[in-house]
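User: what does the whole thing look like in 3D?
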Amino acid sequence: MARVRLNNIEKFYGELHAVRGISLDIPEGEFTVIVGPSGCGKSTLLRALAGLEEIDAGTIEIGDEVVNDMAPRDRNIAMVFQNYALYPYMNVYDNIAFGLRARKFPSNEIETRVHQAADMLGITDQLDRLPRQLSGGQRQRVAIGRAIVRDARVFLFDEPLSNLDAKLREEMRVEIKRLHQDLGKTMVYVTHDQIEAMTLADRIVLLRNGKIEQEGAPLDMFERPVSRFVAGFLGSPSMNFIPARLAAENGQINVAFSDGLSLPMPSDRVSGLEPGREVVFGVRTEHITRDRGANGRAGLASLRVKIDLIQPTGTRTYATFQLAGEPVMAELEAHDVERPGEQLSLFFDMNRIVLIDPETDLVIQ
Amino acid sequence: MKATTSIADTSFGYRVSVFADRRFKYLLVWPAVLILLLVAIFPLINLLIVSFQDISIIGENKTFQGGLNYGRLFEDARLWQSIWHTLAFTAVALPAELILGLLLALLFVDRMPGRGIFVALLIIPTVISPIVAGAMWRLMLDTQFGPVNQILGWIVGGPVDITWTVDRAFVWPAIFITEVWQWTPFMFLLLLAALSNVDKSQIEAAQIDGASGLRIFFKIVLPAIKPVLAIVLLIRGLDLFRLFDIVWALTKGGPGTTTETISLYAFVLGFQQFETSYTAAIAFVVIVLLSIIVILALRRVELAR
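Assistant: Here's the predicted 3D structure for the full assembly of 670 residues, as structure tokens:
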């Protein structure tokens, strides 16, 4: 077990500046998820941490030692690869035992450890099979087994679930989370999937173009995004963004849309908002609810809209309508709307919306 | 009504297509079969027939001679010597080419500047005709004017006059140099392709697992390229067993019969001494032996997969 510290990491691939001065402090035992769209540098960062990629500047510390010039095998880390990277000509037992044998563990110790790991992952009855005889989920378990069988200081996961189908992915997600709770090891997990990031992480690090856009606890980042990018990346379906303008009326500040509709900001959220300013209005689908006439909580603003598309999922129904020429999606109760074309009054939870500066894409309020 | 017609139509069309498909595939195959019959099966049968007759420079006796020619095989010391030469040379040259080719391939498997040019240059010997390669090396190894002797002379610091294509101690090394020079690149090229196909993440996983370079090579890389390894060994093994051109260009089997291979001996017997029937018997035995080796080898390759 060890903490990991990255200081001002830079990485170039020829002209491409893949990692731009990333610093990160990962405390011992924490589950950190590095997330971002493809090409954001997240895999490069993980591979640099593993020693598979050389960095052009900065230092990497594992425990209290700088490991920049250390070969991967001397860093005492374990890694799970996206394509599993199992050794195809060895059976499951030999795959898991490979690292122990390479590190010259005594054979009885190897046997106990392999069986322990296999027990933990429920693959004991597959120990003498070859990787190609296993299903995707089983292969992923073997890959994880190979990682946990050694007492590695840090566990690295490089998009380990992206080759699995949706159902299996959820299953393995639970298993990885449980593994972290049981082992209490430092884990660094790379993914492009925001749901994996939200569900697994103690802390999310969101990368964009080789830089950290925001880092923090999952719910913090979800509720208090610093930029349009973060707000749009986390959450599914994504947040709605509608261009608007701030307008002062009767002593309060309204968010006014180009089609004449407007929504009042709650009085405790108006400080620093200058009337006349151009903004992007951001609202999550679940913060638009049906207005049933009864007086709602403070901060709910009502708007009458015409639904033009509905997508029922069973528990909820996604309803799309137009606001200022932009399609906006609301996540309503299953029976709130029955067919497209219905006129509906919807509440916007103005306590939860974000206002974004269209120039800088940073969140103002 | 309309529906019935359409069902009838599709089923008719379907039947036509199945029929056409069945007939058509035979139609496509028969030219290949014909050519195979013409250039392989008929000559082979004729070879077998001739080997049981007695046709030589002395005369043509086309009656059935029983085991006459096959009996001669066992008493022909020169034949056994040529077989020994062929096998011994294969046993030395094949591993040499394999190891050299593999080392070169390992050297060039990683991307590096100038890699494309080097690989292209390395391939050149293999695209040259063996008889040309042999002729070229005869010049290279020429006692008086050849650069090889000259360079050796610079190294030892005095004149070197090895008669590469005549001296009994040097004729086999001369053939070895030429053979290895020409065919190592072939091994190199195929092994390079095989090595490039080894899953990089497996190697990375093994590095992280703590394996040394040697361990990774023997446990991960070698098993991965084994099928290709088996195929190149088979191809080159067969080629070496038929070794002719290079020897012909360099020594013509000499001095005496020192460098006579089985192919060379058969050629001399058949086309210089016109021992047609006896040569046919030799050729037939060689073909049967090689076929057995190929079948066994292919079966092993199949099993390995």
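In plain terms: Residues 166-183 of chain A form the longest helix (18 residues). The first strand of chain A starts at residue 4 and ends at 13.
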